[in-house]
Amino acid sequence: MKLALNTLVYEVGNKGPEESLRSAAKYGFKYIEYAGIRKGNPQTMSAEQKKEAIRIVKDNGIHSTQMLLVATKDTAHPDKKKRDAVFDYMKTCAEFQMELGGRQLLVCWGGGLYELGVSPEQSWLYMLENVGRFAEWCLDKNLLVGIELDPHVYFICNNTYKLAKAVEDIGLPNIYPNIDVGHLVITREEPAQLEKLKSRMLHVHLSETESFAHTNSILGTGAVPFRQYVDKCIDLGIEENCAKIGEPCVAGIEMGSEASGGFVEDPDFWVEESLKFLEKELPHVKR
């Protein structure tokens, strides 16, 4: 397993993709997770910005292992126009991920939100329809579509049981469950709970929490026992899963809170402090 840098911490720090990618290269990362939001949103970036981001990635031998489709809270919205807008956004992100040379995409926000006035069952069906048609659109492009659980009551996929059920119900071979260890701590799901996901898991997020709030703070400043979860993923065969499909097996440092509108004063400092912690906590996971 290799260590990746998630660019979300720079977006939350009001830095653009050019700056985040240059910092990734500066800190010796060969693997990144690209956050498709704010200044890095592929729908609003100029052609020049995209060209420069692609140049930095290629010139520094960086692999975009995953693109986070962050603007997806309306994935299961009862208004079809909003669901369609999310679908268009996801396709744009997928096209940019291909330009960056990557295959993996992640539908964030737990597959969508429960909305007032809509039954949980109907919300589930909206989520399956929208994520399913996106995964189907990705099939002939050799792209992989991830879903992750988000750890609060208003997220549609908010535990490992629902995450496993979503993968099963969509039923396409390019769907995978993303493993975010900070989310699992909030939902009080021990590493053993990952057993049900072992045949499909491909990607890990290293995020921090103070046990109740998903702080996405500097790694090592909260309650997450990172090594227990990462070692369990390795024991369950995540590296073999990735090798079968020709993907690098990575755990990405995810920091900065998009959902709460937080701000990161100095993203580089957050990265440096997290790297110091991980050198002790996960010495076997290298950049």
Automatic annotation (TrEMBL):
It comes from the Bacteria. InterPro entries: IolE/XylAMocC-like, Xyl_isomerase-like_sf, Xyl_isomerase-like_TIM-brl. Residues 22-237 form the Xylose isomerase-like TIM barrel domain. PANTHER family: BLR5974 PROTEIN, HYDROXYPYRUVATE ISOMERASE. This is Xylose isomerase-like TIM barrel domain-containing protein. It comes from Draconibacterium sediminis. The lineage of its organism: Bacteria, Pseudomonadati, Bacteroidota, Bacteroidia, Marinilabiliales.
